[in-house]
Please model this.
Amino acid sequence: MSDDPFLKLEQEYSKSVKTNDMAEIRSVRQFLAWFASWEFRNVLTWPFIYGMIFPLLFLDVSIWIFQAFCFRIYGIQRIRRSDYFYVKRHRLGYLNIVEKLNCDFCGYANGLIAFTREVFARTEQYWCPIKHAVRIKGAHERYAGFMQYGETEGFQENLENLRKEMADGRQA
Model:
């Protein structure tokens, strides 16, 4: 008999679930091998990583309410939330269940942040489409169309034009 502990687990699994499906058995074996290779520091951070789901869900609901209420009042075209969420990597057959969960979690979190950024980019375009006095890192796409800092001439007219562009679904 082999000294391979995974082979023994594989054999016990196939007996306990009464399957000879080699793909399923191989997937269980790959998962066990993957799990055994995890470093303690990775496992130690799971509560912190997955604990972020609560503030993310709160942000998601808050942004949905904010957009539903404020954008309608201001006449800003609403953002399709589905354009920002690409949670499809769980369909990849070569990922085990934990890897699929990790991929979906990150896809959701990054999609939510991108969606939130666009909501506030449109809010900024409505309320204060003025560039900062200094160069900022990571400016959103609408920022390039904002008025220059200190540009007083035609401010109100430009503000109304930028608001009208948003109501028509155009970008600054």
